[in-house]
Amino acid sequence: MAVRLPRPHRFDVYVAAGGLLGGVLLWAIGLGVRPADDPIVLFDGRWPLLLPLAVTAGCELLRRAAPRTAVLIGTAALVLDTMTQGSLITLLMYTDLGYAVVLYGSPATARRVPWIAGLLTVAATVVPFAVWRVPEALLVGVAVGVVTFAPASTGLIVRNHREAADAARLRAEQTALLAEMDRVQAVSAERARMARELHDMVANHLSAIAIHSTAALSLDDPATTRQALGVIRENSVEGLSEMRRLIGILRDTGGDTEPSAAPTLDGLGALVDGAHANGLDVTLDAAHGTDLPAPVELAAYRIVQESLTNALKHAAKGPVRVSLTRADGALHVRVTSPYGDPGAPRAPGSGAGLVGMRERAALLGGTFDAGPDGALWTVRAALPLDQGASS
Hints:
By secondary structure, the chain is of the alpha+beta class.
């Protein structure tokens, strides 16, 4: 099976071509590293040095695509070059191969090559000095260090800088991604909160309007019709006022208009009076005490408000009882209404009210339950006071 060599990088082609042309130019003018009478020159003449030059230039084509193969073949070519008069360009290209194998090689290769080059440099320094016992022998180690250890160390430094830059860029991308996820979650949570507020503020008035308009249309009694139209007008005005307050909060123009304060349990009396005006027989038993956390008060108020709205839309005739008690570190809300055939036109429900009440309780770490209990429909909620204080 034929082995397909990787395609060289364009820059590597330029390096190989420039090295080969430069080496040929030096060869043409007769400039070599060693004189022809040097004892280590085994291949006399000028022609033999072209072979290691050509092989090293070919290795430059693989400096990025296959750096370990390139440096191994280049090492053999350098050994062959030392047996000739030698070429400076061959040495320079070999140093580039040592640099590239650390920069572009595998992590294991990048760790090992500098150690190997360092050991070779130490050996090339100690062994000749131990044999010849002359200071000039130390120059052999210096030459080996310049050719092997210096390029490998430079490649390792550049590689570490590139990896650090890549890691920083990755952290920045991850941070941006997390920030975007937080933004999306914050927007979703704010939309859910706005949906709950809008539903709780307006649903009561719209339900009363729907019920009384149905009664006015179905009964041929001028007095009843006039009374129903009065209730419809009152709920329309109040609903429109609350809608305007909500729109003002959303606009947040920063002018003199301040957003309306969140409702508290002190407003339960007015809420019950409104339910009486809409035809409900409501009894309020509030024993919740004082100094409740604001989130707990808001959640309890909205749960009672939505429960009365549901009673107006779905409950049969009979008393509706609202009870608030404080026990076991929580505010307990309980609303009961007659369960069964209302016997009169009622507004349809979407189920969003139960979902909103359950979400309000869950946000405070509390519990919520709603369902038939014999002849009654019972809404129960337990709102922890400590969770409300930390919200």
